[in-house]
């Protein structure tokens, strides 16, 4: 009998053990009501394959020689796939399941599976990049094991910042990430559009404040000024036309420093008027993109 035949026998034995768990010694309640489900398994296999189960079973309650665990942050579908993987090494995953499986694998500390799923997500990036870059980035930042995915998302953000500004999840990005992007000279969006997005991002952080600036109280203005403060120095206000300033910027003039507001209005009345505020040059669309230092942190 050759080595391959032995491997097939072992694989089949573990598959039978997975399918027939009459002698199980672990009961696992997965998910949250009303979508929870109970699974049965063997402690020795779980502990051998996952540090998570080694830690949990060491402190889990035991009744009639059986351990009982509850896993609330993993859904039944993903856990069923992972449990079969734990027993057999077989991973049955559709593209639609990859992201959820990655989250579940991180929860259960299945490091080989985490590496594989990160690679799979990156390989299939053309399917999700334009719509899910920001959620993917946020996930990678939160999960220490997802360094590979985090580096990939950072690279894409630097190479194609328009993916961030055009994303429906733009308002959820961190202040550090927003300021980093605003500081770039090569953004291709019109400056007035960048300003509008920054206003949208600011108001999103204060859902109780009206979107109508005419109704803002002094307290509301103070809160909004504190939120938008780090962004203001990176907006190229003098690259915005007079008409766009009147329609899109001036309604929010309470958020601007007094000297800057005066300089902008004087500039549009008479462009020869000396400007006291720091002025940034117009942005220039990039020709060649230089990738960032992967250690850059704007989480």
UniProtKB/TrEMBL annotation:
Renumbered to this chain, region (Disordered) spans 278-299
Provide the BTB domain boundaries. Answer: 24-95
Source organism's superkingdom? Eukaryota
- What is the name listed in the Swiss-Prot or TrEMBL entry for this protein? 4287_t:CDS:1
Q: Which residue ranges have biased composition labelled Polar residues? A: 287-299
Q: Which PANTHER family does this entry report, sorted A to Z? A: BTB DOMAIN-CONTAINING PROTEIN-RELATED (PTHR24410:SF23), HL07962P-RELATED (PTHR24410)
InterPro entries in the record: BACK (IPR011705), BTB-POZ/Galectin-3-binding (IPR051481), BTB/POZ_dom (IPR000210), SKP1/BTB/POZ_sf (IPR011333)
């Amino acid at each position: 009998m050759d080595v391959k035949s032995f491997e097939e026998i072992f694989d089949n034995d573990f598959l039978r053990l997975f399918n027939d768990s009459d002698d199980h010694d672990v009961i696992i309640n997965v998910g949250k009501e009303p979508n929870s489900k109970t699974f049965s398994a063997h402690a020795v296999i779980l502990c051998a394959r996952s540090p998570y189960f080694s830690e949990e079973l060491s402190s889990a309650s035991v009744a009639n020689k059986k351990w009982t665990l509850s896993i609330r942050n993993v859904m039944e579908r993903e856990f069923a796939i992972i449990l079969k993987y734990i027993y057999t090494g077989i991973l049955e995953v559709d593209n639609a399941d990859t992201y959820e499986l990655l989250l579940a694998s991180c929860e259960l500390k299945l490091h080989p599976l985490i590496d594989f799923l990160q690679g799979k997500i990156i390989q299939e990036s053309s399917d999700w990049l334009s719509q899910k870059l920001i959620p993917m980035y946020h996930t990678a930042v939160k999960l220490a094991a997802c360094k590979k995915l985090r580096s990939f998302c950072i690279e894409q953000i630097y190479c194609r910042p328009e993916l961030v500004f055009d994303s429906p999840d733009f308002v959820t990005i961190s202040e550090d990430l927003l300021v980093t992007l605003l500081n770039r000279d090569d953004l291709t969006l019109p400056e007035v559009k960048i300003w509008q997005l920054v206003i949208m991002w600011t108001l999103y952080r204060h859902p109780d404040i009206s979107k109508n600036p005419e109704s803002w109280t002094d307290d509301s203005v103070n809160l909004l000024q504190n939120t938008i403060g780090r962004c203001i120095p990176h907006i190229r206000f003098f690259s915005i036309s007079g008409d766009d300033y009147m329609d899109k910027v001036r309604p929010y003039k309470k958020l601007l420093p007094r000297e800057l507001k005066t300089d902008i209005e004087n500039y549009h009345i008479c462009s020869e008027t000396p400007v006291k505020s720091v002025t940034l040059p117009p942005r220039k669309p990039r020709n060649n993109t230089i990738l960032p230092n992967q250690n850059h942190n704007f989480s």
